[in-house]
Design goal:
By secondary structure, this protein is α+β, with helices and mostly antiparallel strands. Helix content is 16%, strand content 39%.
């Protein structure tokens, strides 16, 4: 009888210890979706896409005070090649507005309903040496809706909005034809050195920014950071980072004056790619630019610190809306 009692107490102790141990364990959630592999290189759906892009250019004084804010807004419509039957996607700028400093927001009439074809190439340049085939002539002698001519640096901001858009939405978010790209990112946590790393595209534009002006990327990386929801769409979250980039620009504000500007840039951000359609749903980019300009008529060089923030949103109505 006594032996039986001892065994019973021992059994109860074992059961109690098991219950306590089980209560202390944390049940892990089902994370299988985070461990799966993804194909981000598939073809994009054959549906017209609408995008809105806003870029802010913030200028700072040496003491850190913000001295100026400029805002550029671009509305683009993309009609896929499979819809038009052409050999490249067709883009239409439905509207472009600018707001420089304390001035009012004003449209750029020459860009309204401007249509062009975008065809990604390995070199990124067309036969005229134009990045992404964006026509330089379109940005020559731009005027706003009030008839005011945009100075060369402001016209470059307008041009660069298109370059930024295609850089993020096509170069980073579509497969590359040479070198590593989004097609090499299969699982969360993977990180690659992108084919755009250490490239040095020209940034000359018309008569205002002369040939020899270039932007040199640093070690550009692309990472599959995780998953997210944008407007209800399940997306792959890509992170991009330019590394230590640099540039040189030869500006000609007057026919007989050349301003040389050199500096450094670091841009980085996130791209959300729709897992179902493969179209970009959202981009958020931040860039820090530090520059030094030499003006022939001034005794001292001019130092400039600029912050750029850009957000691209896909505003295509969902099916049934």
């Amino acid at each position: 009888m006594r032996t039986h009692r001892i065994l019973t107490v021992a059994a109860l102790a074992v059961i109690c210890n098991s219950i306590c141990a089980g209560a202390g364990e944390v049940k892990r959630p089902d994370d299988s979706i985070l461990r799966r592999t993804f194909d981000l290189a598939g073809p994009r759906s054959a549906q017209v896409q609408l995008f809105e892009m806003e870029t802010q250019v913030l200028t700072y004084a040496p003491d850190g005070k913000r001295t100026n804010t400029e805002v550029l807004k671009l509305a683009l419509k993309c009609t896929p090649a499979r819809v038009t039957g052409k050999d490249a996607d067709q883009y239409t700028c439905t509207k472009f507005t600018v707001q420089f400093g304390v001035g009012k927001e004003v449209a750029i009439p020459a860009l309204a309903n401007w249509t062009y074809l975008f065809k990604s190439t390995g070199a990124g340049l067309d036969e005229k040496g134009q990045v992404f085939g964006i026509d330089h002539a379109k940005f020559e002698n731009l005027t706003d809706a009030n008839g005011q001519t945009l100075p060369p640096d402001k016209a470059y901001y307008v041009y660069n909005a298109f370059i930024d858009f295609h850089g993020f939405c096509n170069v980073f978010a579509e497969p590359t034809t040479g070198g590593k790209g989004v097609q090499d990112l299969k699982s969360i946590g993977q990180k690659i050195v992108h084919a755009a790393a250490f490239t040095e595209p020209p940034v000359n534009l018309g008569s205002g920014i002369a040939k020899g002006s270039t932007f040199k990327n640093g070690e550009v990386t692309l990472e599959l950071k995780g998953l997210g929801l944008v407007d209800g769409a399940a997306c792959a979250l890509l992170g991009f980072d330019s590394g230590q980039s640099s540039f040189q620009m030869l500006m000609k504000p007057l026919p007989n004056m050349e301003v040389r500007c050199v500096g450094a840039s670091h841009y980085k951000g996130d791209i959300y790619v729709d897992l179902a359609t493969k179209w970009v749903r959202k981009v958020a980019m931040d860039e820090l630019v530090v520059a030094e300009s030499t003006v022939p008529t001034l005794p001292n060089k001019i130092d400039t610190v600029v912050e750029r923030n850009a957000v691209i949103r896909n505003v295509t109505p969902k099916a049934g809306e």
